[in-house]
Amino acid sequence: MNPFTLTRAASVDAAVRDFSGHEAAAYIGGGTNLLDLMKENVAHPQHLVGLNKLPLSAIESTTGGGLRLGATASNADTAWHPEVQQRYPLLSQAILAGASPQLRNMATNAGNLMQRTRCYYFYDTATPCNKREPGSGCAAIGGYNRIHAILGTSEHCIATHPSDMCVALAALEAVVQVQGPDGERQIKFEDFHRLPEDHPERDNTLKPGELITGIELPAQGFAENFAYLKLRDRQSYAFALVSVAVGLELDGNTIKEARLALGGVAHKPWRDRAAEDLLKGQPATEATFRKVAEAVLKEAKGQGTNDFKIELAKRAIVRALTQAAAGEQQASDVFTNSNP
Amino acid sequence: MSTDSNTKYVGKAPSRVEGPLKVTGQAKYSAEFDVPDLVYGYVVSSPVAKGKIRKIHADKILALPGVLQVFSHENVPTLAWFDRSYKDDVAPGGSPFRPLQDDEIKFSQQPVALVVAETFELARYAASVLEIEYEQEKHETDVEALREKGQEPGSGKTGYKPPVRRGNADKGLSKAEHRIKQEYVHGTQHHNPMEIFGATVHYHPDGKLTVYDKTQGVFNCQQYLKKVFGLSADKARVVNLFMGGGFGAGLRPQYELYLSVLAALELKRSIRLSLTRQQMFSLGHRPHTLQTVELGTDASGALVGVKHKAVHETSRFEEYTENVVNWSGMLYQCPDVHLEYEVVPLDVFTPLDMRAPGAATGSIGLEVAMDEMAYAAGIDPLEFRRRNYADRDQNEDKPFSSKKLREVYDEGARRFGWDKRKMEPRSMREGNRLVGWGMAGGVWDASMQKAAAKATITADGKLTVSSAAGENGTGTYTVMTQIAAETLGLPMEAVTAKLGDTTLPEAPVQGGSWTAATVGSAVKSVCEALGEKLLKLAQKMDDSPLKGAKPEDVEFVNGLIRLRKEPRQSVVLRDVLQVSGEREIEADSSVMPNPLNMQKYSMHAHNAVFVEVQVDEDLGTIHVTRVVNVVAAGRIINQKTARSQVLGSVVWGISMALMEETVMDHRYGRYLNHNFAEYHVPVNADVRDIEVHFVEEEDPHVNPLGVKGIGEVGLLGVAAAITNAVYHATGKRVRSLPLTIDKLL
Ligand SMILES: Cc1cc2nc3c(=O)[nH]c(=O)nc-3n(C[C@H](O)[C@H](O)[C@H](O)COP(=O)(O)OP(=O)(O)OC[C@H]3O[C@@H](n4cnc5c(N)ncnc54)[C@H](O)[C@@H]3O)c2cc1C
Ligand code: SF4
């Protein structure tokens, strides 16, 4: 870990300015990911801009009927917020399926979007990794890649984005609000994270110095028919091998509107619009769900140790769609009463 | 005889005496001791698995203000020369690793330098920018690829028993009505106690050291310091009062001890050195093991042949051994047995005993194979075990000192409701989940070692008992307190137990589940010796009703010394102390195992585990919903701490079965998931109902206390029972652990 300076910004403007005024600066939210990366010598910021004094922790309704989640609100406060629980239970459940209570208390919403991959090699500086050190090679290809991607990979990187929250946000068509040296802008969630392509060192489309100020959820929350199904190596405190976020709007047994996003399978939360189209207008039956599952995974490519994810993802899609259509409340695999 | 005895503690369930210290943060762990003027060390670990260090560019970081030294093979002083100096009490055969003594890299994450600075942060930063040039050589780390290079080990380490052979297993098997032969594998595991390994070395003005080190054996460490650094016992005191778990990782002196003492002596400064979680994966491990088991039965279900072979890795420099296969010649009756055991030297660090070493591994092979055999023969798995019950230890051809495994089977089956089990796989369901019931069991050595203890009672009636054994968190302080209080008829609150300090009477490393038997016996013996002194003083009192009584005629109960036959004839112990005029009275004693009994009897603890799993077949997820673990381990001194030990064992068993594995990328010869986010152990949500029950055994032969130890036996069979239950649920036999989602899809 290298020496660094720390300031706590009092306003968004000051934060952005402070960032631009320093060499190798980084924003820090709860620090649950960034500090680990610094201790592992993966990240070497020389200056940290602390965000927890910013007036960005509110969760409030928008004029358009949606909900705005402050960038520095904690994952826990967001998940347990009554508006989120009632109107966006998919998001609440996705957050609660992630990490542990202690981590969720510290973690911020913006930090969750920005968290980096859990690829073993990315964390271990004794091995090559294009994301950590562009051009050094990708050790996961041809290595142990049980937790790696099966969709949208490139020859340079096969890492996944590890977030649960973001899978729900993708399905809900959230919008990320940012402010940078060049002013404010809005980024559609789909366009926020990116595929590795030739630049695996870039996880997202944020420009240098841009600060996430909030996340806006549109009015449609799929509170009746939704599911977040997370498959992992233990019941809590483990990242998803595969996760599925589903939101459905039903007319009787016919699907009117559908959202489907996967976690643990790609460099970004994997929303599949073609699959959503395949669902629309169709009866909510197992046959429909199987067809959709096959379609989502058609282009999937295993890397060896993660081959099983292709079949697992298909089954998870069918299960999550079935649960969402049935209106079952807790879709997660946890069958104790709540997610500990 | 009166039975009103509040000071009868043995067999009850008092809470752990050090509990309040632990929950209020007053219990100090080795890297927490406050010592003035500390400097801090940080270890640099090798990124390569094999090769040479070409150059260490220390100049740049030595120029940083506050960096005191970079220790490496380039500047380390000449220390002991011979291998034997580096051998500790539990070292296997070979040449122990000597940190920083030459330029050779023998395993990935080998410590190659120690940076010492005025602050921890500075030491860590300097370590991160220290440039080291390596010359990499080709390494070999894959035991599966190199299994053919396995060789039967030499004498190995203390306690190693060469594989047993008797009768003619091939001939027996050739006549079998039913036969199975299968291979079982589990990956590498690391002990991973919660508390990180660390040491605080206090360098006193006179050059003496007090070394607070995380270890399961303070004397083992003191001896090591003596042989390696020439520090006589009065020069280096080693202390470890509490431990946040050891699981075997603290059996041998680890490199934080060597490095911190080296730096303290060279710099003449007090130093603190804490490893990182990643470095905890460089302290030894349970080896990746391949097992082949072949069984056969006759028409009645009697075993007619047992073959069991195990192969695992060791390092290039030491021949690590554990007893994996011999249990297969002992747990069941069979005249024709052929066991084999081989190790393959690889470019890894030496494995290290971990939670029921050998037996935990062997019981997976044997007990899953027994289940497969039961199915092949069409016999209920429990009934099959009953039919092959061993009334005698056939390995040693001796009777057991006691063995209530039949009662364990009965009790476990009754508590679990085994009679309601349908034999056929996939025959039980709950909702959309498949339900499976499986069972397995195990056997573990009941050991005792030589140990000494001291007891001191002061005029105010307060007793202190001490012995230098370790406290792993198992409950040793509490058990000592109970035994001492009961032996001298004092309330537990009047007794203080001391452990983990080389200024106390000598005791062995804490391991092998022998501490209760060993230290407990020593405490009992020393309290009896003190009791005799107190009786003599009591008899000197005017009008003493105890005059002429022999030690065996009196008992110490409720603060009194009284005649066994006439309990009303008593004196108050406090009065004895007051009248004696002595400020304190003390006694020393030491105990050792009875060699005659050891020759005559086979001494073992047994258990049986019954497990229910629920499996979501589509998604490959497994939930262990119910576990009943019944243990026969002689007498139970503390029902609460004993139960906690077995609860912990079950959790570790779930861990072994479903989660734990350190994965190595053989291209780099390096463990990949060396952190707690990716090295999975169970969390609360993974652990459901666990029922623990003890079938107590009266065993006059095993040791004076009649205890067999419960630290490890509870782990045996858990992983196998889960594997068997998953088969019963799904009809799918998975023979490679951990049993993760991908293996069940
Ligand atoms: C052991 C473990 C298990 C976990 N398990 C899960 C899991 O199962 N599922 C899951 O989803 N997550 C999991 N997490 C990850 C956790 O959710 C993230 O660490 C957390 O959300 C990050 O939030 P933070 O505020 O602490 O971010 P920080 O660590 O503070 O920052 C992370 C990144 O975000 C940047 N950043 C922070 N705020 C802003 C901002 N406002 N604008 C721009 N950039 C910003 C920082 O510069 C940094 O690069 C786990 C973490 C750990 C350590
Ligand atoms: S998958 Fe990506 S993050 Fe992992 S080693 Fe390859 S380049 Fe690095």
Q: CATH superfamily assignment of the largest domain in chain B? A: Aldehyde oxidase/xanthine dehydrogenase, molybdopterin binding domain
**Largest sheet features of chain A:** 5 strands, antiparallel
What is the alpha-carbon Rg of chain B in Å? Answer: 27 Å
The spatial strand order of the largest sheet of chain A comes to 4-5-8-6-7
What is the CATH-assigned architecture of the largest domain in chain B?
2-Layer Sandwich
- CATH names the topology of the domain at 225-326 in chain A as Enolase-like, domain 1
Adjacency order of strands in the biggest sheet of chain B: 3-6-1-13-10-11-12
Instruction: Indicate the proportion of strand residues of chain A.
Output: 15-25%
Arithmetic mean pLDDT of chain B: 96
CATH topology of the largest domain in chain B: Aldehyde Oxidoreductase, domain 4
Looking at this structure, what is the CATH superfamily of the domain at 225-326 in chain A? CO dehydrogenase flavoprotein, C-terminal domain
Number of helices of chain A: 13
* Low-confidence region ranges of chain B: none
Shape of chain A: globular
**Which chains share the greatest interface?**
A-B, 41 and 37 residues
Give the low-confidence spans of chain A: 331-340
Give the % helix of chain A. Answer: 25-40%
Main sheet of chain B, how many strands, which sense, barrel? 7 strands, mixed
Q: Count of DSSP helices of chain B? A: 17
- CATH first level of the domain at 225-326 in chain A: which class? Alpha Beta
What is the top-level CATH class of the largest domain in chain B? Alpha Beta
